[in-house]
Amino acid sequence: MQSEINPWSANQSIDTDKLFTEFGIEPIEPLLPEIRNSPTFMRRGIVIGHRDYRPIVDAMNNGTPFHVLTGFMPSGHPHLGHLMVMKEVAWHVQQGGNGYVAVADREAHAVRNISWDKCNEYGREYLTCLYALGYEGDTYYQSTNNRLKDLAFEAAIKMNFSDLQAIYGFGQETALAHAMSVATQVADILFPQADIGPAPTIVPVGIDQDPHIRLTRDVAHKLRFFTVEKRDGYVSVRSKNAPEEALAAVHKAFPGSKKYEGHVDIKGGNLPEVDATVRTIEIEYGGFGFYSPSATYHYFMQGLQGGKMSSSAPESFIGFCDTEKAVKKKIMGALTGGRMTLEEQKKLGGEPDKCSVYLLNLFHMVEDDDELTEICRACKAGELMCGTCKKATYERVKEFLSDFKEKMDEAEHKVDER
Ligand code: TRP
Ligand code: SF4
What we know:
This protein is α/β, with parallel strands linked by helices. It contains 17 helices and eleven strands. α4 (83-94) links the parallel β3 (67-72) and β4 (98-103). The longest helix is centred in the last third of the chain and has 32 residues, at 386-417. The radius of gyration is 24 Å and the shape is globular. The mean pLDDT is 94. It binds tryptophan and iron/sulfur cluster. Tryptophan binds at residues 7, 69-73, 102, 104, 107, 185, 188-189, 203, 205, 209.
C-alpha cells in the first residue's frame, strides 16, 4: 500500500482519525499526565501523535540517556512554520536529551535543486534560529558529515527499490539522488546512536515525515544482530544476522544460559539487563545495537491565506527577517474564521478553529492558557471582531520578532564556533 502521506507533496490535508487507525500513530494525550512540566505544544494538542514515545517519557522521568534529533531542509529562509520543531528539539534537550540537528542540504540540492551556496546560507539561518531559542547540542550539514554518509550506505543495504516504491511511490523515473537523500535521512535519524551509543531517540517532526520514520524503524530493526524477547520464565536471544562468535559471546556473558542453533535462552533472565548486555556485545562484534527511533508528530500551522505555509509563497508565512510593514500587511490580510458581515459575526460568533490568526496565537504568540481561552471564547461569542483581534495579534508578533531578532544577533557567532 502506498502511503497517503507524501513528504514532498504540497497537499497537507490529513485526516487525523486515519492516522490513528490506519497508520498506527498513537495519540499523545494518554501520556500527558506522565510528562513533567509538559510544554504548551503538547498541552494544546499541537503535537497530536507519536510512535513509541513511551521510552522517551521513561528516560526523561528516570534521568537515563536519550537522544533527540531532527533535520531541516534548507530550501528557503526559515519562518514561523519551522518554529514548532525547533522548540521541540530545544525542549527535549532541556529535559536531558543529547541534541542533534541535521541541515538536510543533500535533500535540498537533490530534490529541490537548491545550489550548495544557497543551502549553506539558509542552513546558517536555521541554525541561528535554533541557537536563538537556546538550543545546545550538535549540528551538522549532511554533505560534510562523512560518518553520516558511511552510515547512509550501511542503511541502504537494508533498503530496496520495492520498499521505496511502496513507501514513497518512487518509480522508474525517480532520480537516484532522491533515493540517496532518503538513505541519508535514515542515517540522520540513526546518527546519534552511531555517534555516542545506542539509546532511545526522539525525532520531532511534522506529520508529513512519518514515512521516513517508518522506514527508519524498519531499517534499524533489520540492522540488529539479535532480537531479545521475554518468554515464559526465560529471556530468548535470537540471532537474526549475528556472526557465530557474537552468539557465543552472549552465551558466555550469561552463566547458566543454554545455547542452541541460532539462539540462546537465559533462564530467569531480566529483560532490560539482557537487552543492554546484548547491545554491548553487538557493538563489540561490529553491529550497531540500534533502538528503533521514536517520533512525535505535530500539526502544521495553517498558512495565512489558508492552505499550507510554504517557503515558495511568502504571503503564506511570517519570516524571521520580515520587516514590520510586511508582517502587518500579512496579518491584516490574513484569512480568518470571521463571518461575512459584522452583524453576522456578532450574532453567530467567529470560527477560531478555521482561523489562521487564531492558530498563530495558539501555536506561538499566546503562552498563557487563560488568555488564549479568553480569545477563543470572545471570538465564538461574537464579542471579539477580527479587525481588533488581528491588530492585537500583530502587536504580539511584532514584539516576538523584535525580541527574537535580537536573540538571533546574539547567537550568530555560535554558528561559526560549532
Ligand atoms: N526531510 C526533512 C524535511 O523535508 C528534513 C530532514 C532531513 C529531517 N533529515 C531529517 C527531518 C531527519 C527529521 C529527521 O524537512
Ligand atoms: Fe480569528 Fe480573531 Fe476573527 Fe476570531 S476574532 S475569527 S480568532 S481573527
